[in-house]
Design goal:
Ribosomal Protein S5, domain 2; Alpha-Beta Plaits; seven-stranded mixed β-sheet; four-stranded antiparallel β-sheet
Length: 304
């Protein structure tokens, strides 16, 4: 009997990592679950309710359409269900996780016509960038490459991050839509700012690749996106400084925000999280604290 239902566990992710705009990402031990069940009717529908702040149906339909176009396979009707702890519109890759789950689920239910990196390419196109999609599919620290002319996804180099390193995330109850966060970015950036950001990009990548995390304190200086996006959430610098004052190596605005992440050694992650949260409490902003590590495996598929 053929399988009619698939569950995909997809890690959340932090993207940009400071200077790596649309390039760098890290998968996190925080998960979304996407269940796809084939049905006889030809429609696509949600079982239950969307997570708060989400309107998933249009995105799911786009994913199904992209899968059909790529494979020439009619998906027919299916019911999808989404649950987990990944907050929506907080810069933790919720849309990429949903896309990855739907595409992978459909692929599994229809005989796996596409390889994982082909699915990643579809997800990257639908999400308008490859960073979060790469982390969702592949896990670890990801460096993604796009075609400079077309912007289409080409490849990702990924490597593991030590389990001794904590990714401490505070996620305020403040939504920041990626579409809005991109609107605040300038059309042009001074040459000096680009050079300085490229220097940071190369350095942070080499430190994570070599495991020399203790040198991260001077690695994250961005002039491409973070200074402009801080206008949407003005406490980013204060939160990062609080984390660093209590032992974090470094920190950044996660994706387009509003979540903020600090990279911490094991001996200080609890104090780092407490300090980051206190900044928001002092400004009467409610938030959720996630004490995470890197997911080095990427998404997983199971039958229901």
């Amino acid at each position: 009997m053929s399988v009619r239902s698939i569950i995909v566990q997809v890690p959340a992710s932090t993207s940009n990592c400071g200077p790596g705009f649309d390039v760098l990402s890290i998968a996190l031990t925080l998960y979304a679950f996407v269940k796809i069940t084939l049905v006889e009717s030809g429609d696509i529908r949600l079982a239950g309710e969307d997570p708060p702040g989400s309107d998933s149906l249009q995105l799911v339909k786009c994913a199904a359409g992209a899968f059909e176009k790529k494979t020439c396979i009619k998906t027919g009707g299916f019911i999808y269900e989404v649950w987990g702890e990944v907050p929506v519109a907080r810069g933790l890759g919720s849309s990429a996780a949903l896309l990855a789950g739907v595409l992978t689920g459909l692929n599994a239910l229809h005989g796996e016509p596409l390889e994982r990196r082909e699915l990643l390419a579809l997800s990257a196109r639908l999400d308008d960038a490859p960073d979060n999609s790469a982390a969702s599919f592949l896990g670890g620290f990801c460096v993604s490459r796009t075609d400079p002319e077309t912007g289409l996804y080409l490849d990702t180099i990924r490597f593991d991050v030590s389990g001794e390193i904590y990714m401490v995330v505070v996620s305020p109850e403040v939504e920041v839509l990626t579409s809005i966060a991109r609107q605040v970015l300038p059309a042009e950036i001074p040459f000096k700012d680009v050079v300085n950001s490229l220097n940071s990009l190369a350095f942070i990548t080499s430190l994570f690749a070599s495991g020399r995390y203790e040198k991260l304190s001077h690695a994250v200086t961005d002039f491409i996106h973070q200074p402009y996006r801080e206008r949407l959430f003005p406490f980013v610098k204060e939160i990062i400084e609080a984390g660093r004052d209590h032992g974090a190596y470094t920190g950044w605005l996660s994706g387009s925000g509003s979540s903020v992440l600090c990279v911490s050694p094991a001996e200080s992650y609890l104090e780092v999280g407490k300090a980051m949260t206190e900044v928001l409490q002092a400004n009467s902003i409610r938030s959720k604290l996630f004490l995470l590590r890197t997911d080095n495996e990427g998404l997983k598929v199971s039958t229901d």
